[in-house]
């Protein structure tokens, strides 16, 4: 210090004049604010900047190491973060005086606390971006009942706990205690449900939907606690101003943001100008809400809710999330840990009282869920499971407690008891969840194939849609499937949306009354509106049709599992999957998204019912349902399933079905199922019995011919061929016959000399040999292709399991034996080369053997 300072000015008096500051001398230690390194001071950690950097480094290190240590126990990250804060606080290492003075001295606490509250503001903004208010409003009756009781009961118990522990007379403390027990971590719960494979169960859906309401209500309670903990004379002004600001945001600020988003062309990324504008707007909103008596994080959360574009939300989250969650939030949990002191938990009260307080806090959600059984329809077992799951806490619970402590509404003892309660509640959720096994998943359903669906029974179809280009071919296929009052169709349209950012997976059921496209809708909402409109129109135009549209938001690696779970839940007999390639205006098949192929392969492996992959080769542009259908029949269960669907379509007025059965000639040697290309003797899940399969084909076709003998809309043709070459040429020669839809089986387990060599040349193995040929070859006419795989089952230890045909095909290719396969592989190579050189005239001659049977005019 230098100079003899005059008497300090009255800084705390209202009449303090800023101009008088020039007459004052402020006292501070120069080594705290600047440093010339270790050469001028014995302690390099005394200056603020290096000390603050060390604090951040220690906070991140402790959080990451504990998260790594708890990972085998499937604990969510918040558990590691709370424990790391407690370990660094006075309850553990911070209780050592030398450690605290070195790492967390008193003169530096305000700086680290300021950074912690900056983390809260940015965290609140990100939560606002990820919160879907419409999803909260769409929650079902059960979820609303659970939410109502799950808010009231925990809030009352939290209020009782507040008054049972020593507390100050300052108002508003009970709101923070009750609010902390009300919170349920939506993202954390979604991760736990997905890991425990109960996300698609009734309990999982109700818990997840209820947590949406809990999260939104926690912000209301936080704002209420902030307003009530201030001066009682100004509470009404704080409430009025807060409501007025929300009205201004909804009716003026949100339309302004929507206009800004519309200025950006579809598909074009958002520049840094948009990101910076949003961040500045978030800060201004925080300043306004702080000025009216709440907190800056309330304003940041409200501003995040207003952002209308999910793409813009994702762009902001991509820039903020790693920094905020990985760097700043560990600092926040350190501050929480520094305020937590386990030594004072039992001061003034007995240990029994503290233990009972923690137990009652843990039981709050469970009691609330049990109370909801009176009007939610949940059983007691389901209610207990929901109560345990909704005990999962998120950072928001710690935020409420931290704000309550800063506002001096919570004593250190009450704050510590609540922090320990939040920690214990979250820790026990995962172990208790592993004990829950929903019984409804063990109940099988019998109508898993089209063949097993009786003539006068409902056919349940799950149609998957990735984009608007998938809508016309799927609707045309459904319209061709002949729904009647006696043989109805229930069609479930599933919009598949890739998760953008790190939001949790969700399944949304849409109201069929929603139609039209609003200007303020996002790109995803526009697509959803178009899908709903298409299915509504299909239901209105058709007889005996009921529709429902759903949206599944999930990552591509888990999308196949979501499709299979939903098909099982809806008891679907048939799943329609769009192909991952679409025809360009030039006629080429262009890949839209390679991840869709992986999704289709995953569904084929694990589907609980029959599956069809629909390929559009330009027929959907006609906007007319398929009227001229051809079935290419080579034999096997997949072909029989495809022909069953074709027979159903042929019953529709104006539809003509041509069945072409390809048969090997008498001179063609029969193939050994154990010796055809790629067969793996060690794979015994699907037994290929050629004789039995031929008998099944003959019996099925005889029944089919008997049923359609008098039906002029069905033509049956048998064609004798000698090898793969003739099969290729015969199929290619069908180009120009004006077929709208080609139907083929995927061809699993077929030991036919007409297709044995083609499998090794498939670009798309999920389509099978014939389906791949129809897609990859050049055709002049426009048509669609439906590749069908029949559901097959086996019984192992009394349980039903779907056969992994894709795994079988891959294993068959990987385990070729040279003795059995050399001749066939060389023969298939020769066939492919000859087929490529074959002219169109030669293809026509190969087709002459059955062209005379197909001369009838088709409608």
Automatic annotation (TrEMBL):
Tell whether Zinc is among the UniProt keywords.
no
Domain Cation/H+ exchanger transmembrane span(s) in chain numbering? 60-432
Name the keywords, alphabetized. Answer: Ion transport, Membrane, Potassium, Potassium transport, Transmembrane, Transmembrane helix, Transport
Q: Which GO terms describe its biological process?
A: potassium ion transport; proton transmembrane transport; regulation of pH
| Top-level lineage group | Eukaryota
Cellular location(s): Membrane
**Domain Cation/H(+) antiporter central, residue spans:** 492-620
Membrane topology type: Multi-pass membrane protein
Q: Name one GO molecular function term.
A: antiporter activity
Q: Where is the Cation/H(+) antiporter C-terminal domain?
A: 629-792
Give the record's GO CC terms: endomembrane system; membrane
Q: By its UniProt entry, which Pfam families does this protein fall under?
A: CHX17_2nd, CHX17_C, Na_H_Exchanger
Which sequence ranges are marked TM in the entry?
Answer: 48-66, 78-96, 116-133, 145-165, 171-194, 206-229, 235-253, 273-292, 298-316, 323-342, 348-371, 415-436
Major place of localization? membrane
Q: Which family does it belong to?
A: Belongs to the monovalent cation:proton antiporter 2 (CPA2) transporter (TC 2.A.37) family. CHX (TC 2.A.37.4) subfamily.
Q: Which PANTHER family match?
A: CATION/H + ANTIPORTER, CATION_H(+) ANTIPORTER 15-LIKE
Protein's name according to its UniProt entry = Cation/H+ exchanger domain-containing protein
